[in-house]
Amino acid sequence: MADAFNDYEQLAVLPAGVRDFVAGGSGAELTLRRNRAALDAVTVTPRVLGGVGCPDTATTILGTAATLPIAVAPMAYQRLFHPEGELLLAAAAGSAGIPYVISTLSSLPLEKIAAVAPSWFQLYWLRDRTAVRALIDRATEAGCGALMVTVDVPVMGRRLRDVRNSFTLPPDVIAANLVDKSTEAHSTLNGASAVAAHTATAFDPAFSWRDLAWLRSVTEIPLLVKGILDPRDALAAVDAGADSVVVSNHGGRQFDGAPASIDALGSVVDALGNDFPVLLDSGIRGGTDVLKALAVGADAVLVGRPLLWALAVGAPDEALALLGRELRDAMLLAGCADLAAVADLATERNPWPIS
Description:
By secondary structure, the protein is an alpha/beta fold. Helix content is 39%, strand content 13%. It has helices at residues 8-11, 16-23, 30-41, 86-96, 110-114, 129-141, 160-165, 194-202, 209-217, 231-239, 261-272, 287-296, 305-313, 316-333, 339-343; strands spanning 42-45, 59-61, 64-66, 70-72, 100-102, 119-123, 147-150, 223-228, 244-247, 278-280, 300-303, 346-349.
């Protein structure tokens, strides 16, 4: 159906407001565009005559075996894109042998999703700590293999496409994991995003390192901190008990003016050392992007938007198979027999834009 992993965006047929909800970023969308430009600017010098044959893409990510150095990023309200929503994408991830990260704002209960495939749980920090603890306990009881706390959303970034569309969730798409019965996300607000109004009510903008340390104290499963760009914050996350960090600017949907995630990656890896697992999120659009991220220093990547487009087409399994094929092709062309060889590739930033 698609010739390249990035083709699903063109194939997806969605209402204009839903399409903008996925495609858009915050503010003037500078960081959104910067993610793509920065990945395009990374060049990798291939090796030759290594007798590679068939590259080995298998790895272990925070104790979870994976056939690819990839996890499905946490993404909200997936029933906007397909009636089966999270269940269809999670099943595809399970078939592909990679972790699926369940969003706090999933449109189906986390227990149903975790029953479909090996999963991690992504946590947004809520104003009600009792509700936070309940989500952690539910995720643990459901067998989630890791907890990924998102730290870059004290408030939702001002996403102007959603504002201009007065974006509102349809009645049958809900935040299924929250006991909050508020109607903000379903109430049309002229010149405002109903989803942003809901998160402003639910999320705690005063989330702090002290809270993160408390979170570490109440769970024994691996803890990832997602939304790190500054090496100082990476070190603070480790001090608070994190087992991994995810270098991410939330796909350009939060602070507009942040660096591209791939540009921030190297300094975070240098600060933490090569033995500390670091993941990259934001901007990955194909197998060559995955190889670039690993060559710059990531241990694995999260993939988001392209999988929502594929979900809208009803083909997330096909999309993940295609992404794996692209990665293996890229490794073969770069002369890499395994992921350790990818990490050893030489990279640089190309100052000339590709026309």
